[in-house]
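User: I'm writing a tutorial on reading structure tokens. Could you give me a worked example: one chain, its sequence, then its tokens, then a sentence or two explaining what the tokens reveal?
Assistant: Sure. Here is the example chain.
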Amino acid sequence: MPWVDATKKFYIKYFGEIDLESVGEHLDTEIVIDGRRVSVDINFNKKKSLNLRVLEVIQDVLASLDEVMKMNDNAIKNDFENGGEVKFYVDFHLEEFEESELREILGNPDENIAKEIQILSKLKLVRIGFYPEENSSFVVMDYTISKTHTDELVVIKLDRNKNIEEIVIES
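And here are its predicted structure tokens:
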């Protein structure tokens, strides 16, 4: 739970102490999840959007990150199986990449497993963005198969209650 003191300083997981009197429009940090670096940022246009309630929601998402990521993993799998945006993302990269690029991403591809499934398994979280002024898209989570081979992202947008609003492809 974030705390606030008389000097209008908040503490929030991964970000540490935040001074509302001197905060800019953007806060960012980096965390490590499963050995990979993940960027985490809070974006706001008005300082008034960063208040105790907003920090509690951000803190709740960060404290339950394992649960949120499992929910997202299930949503990604279901979206893929139902021919949604994730299926489009995987198919697009299968068509666009040369065999050598696929090997760079997949390592030594297993010929017994469909390349689609192998690409899907490489989809990893690279960024978590918080947008306190948004009710929907309060949390934006970016996934990619490779930061160096593609600028296309699978983006999962969550509301303030950690409900998935939508899954989209962005670049």
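What the tokens reveal: The chain has a mean pLDDT of 89. The longest strand covers residues 26-33.
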